[in-house]
Amino acid sequence: MNKSQILASAIAAVVAMPVMAAPAPTPSFSAEKCYGIAAKGANDCGSATHSCAGNATKSKDGASWLYVPSGTCKKIEGGSLTAK
Fold first, then answer.
1. Is 74 exposed, middle or buried (0-12, 13-18, 19+ CB in 10 A)?
2. Whole-prediction pTM value?
3. Tens-digit pLDDT string for the chain (84 aa)
C-alpha cells in the first residue's frame, strides 16, 4: 500500500467515524426514550445489537428507541418506556 492510499484511508476513517459512532443529540424539549417504535435505520441510539443512531436492523425493534415528547410514548401503538 503506498502513502497516498494510507492517507486516503485515514481521512475516510476520520470522516466516517462521527457518523458511525454518534448517538442522537438530546432534544431541547422535554423528552423520553420510547422503545419499539423506530423504523429500520431510524433509531436514536443503542441496543444490545448496536450502539449508535441509525443502526437499527429491523423496524419496531423492542431494544431500539427514539426520543419523543414526554408523555407521548404510551400513546403510540407498540411504544414502551422500557426495552422489550
1. exposed
2. 0.65
3. 576 666 556 555 555 544 455 667 778 889 999 999 988 888 887 666 666 778 788 889 888 889 999 999 999 999 999 988
